[in-house]
Design brief:
By secondary structure, this protein is mainly alpha-helical. The protein is built from five helices and no strands. Helix 1 runs antiparallel to helix 4 and helix 2 packs antiparallel against helix 5. It is globular.
């Protein structure tokens, strides 16, 4: 039985007609990294927000980090479906992400603005991978990321509407 548990995951060649799998999977890896960093930041702000709008911001960030958690799984599983390995090192994901940590704990208004900007940045970055997926005959990845862009745009809108 222990031999079965010695299996080490590795990349596989999957031939479904997708072209340039390495570039597409690299883009998906960045999307996973961005999603996880934004998930953590949203969760940290959820824990620490204070002020008169505590409750609605607390609920909004909870809704968003739950969505991000599910999204990270979908993105990583898409990488596996393309025959590539999903990220497995938190340090590597931090380095591969465009999301940064705040230098100090911000105000509620700054939290909202920060998250909105991050959602917008992630949507912009994902559009480049959508283009690569479309060029690489990978409508599945393009569709997945198009849906994620819509989710990020909606999240940014909701956050910005709250910050007014």
């Amino acid at each position: 039985m222990t031999d079965v548990l010695d299996t080490v995951p590795q990349a596989d060649r999957i031939d479904t007609g997708v072209v340039n799998v390495l570039a597409i999977s690299e883009g998906l890896s960045q999307a996973v990294a961005d999603t996880y960093r934004l998930l953590f930041k949203s969760h940290a702000y959820h824990w620490n927000v204070e002020g008169p709008l505590f409750h609605p911001i607390h609920l909004l960030t909870e809704e968003q980090y739950n969505d991000l958690f599910r999204a990270a799984d979908d993105l990583a599983e898409r990488m596996r479906a393309l025959g590539r390995l999903a990220p497995f090192q938190l340090d590597a994901m931090a380095k591969g992400s465009i999301i940064s940590d705040p230098a100090k704990l911000p105000s509620a208004h700054e939290m909202i603005e920060d998250l909105a900007s991050d959602h917008e940045a992630v949507a912009k970055r994902m559009r480049k991978v959508i283009a690569a997926a479309e060029k690489g005959n990978d409508p599945v990845t393009a569709d997945l990321l198009t849906g994620r862009c819509a989710a990020h745009e909606k999240a940014a809108w909701m956050l910005r509407a709250t910050a007014k």
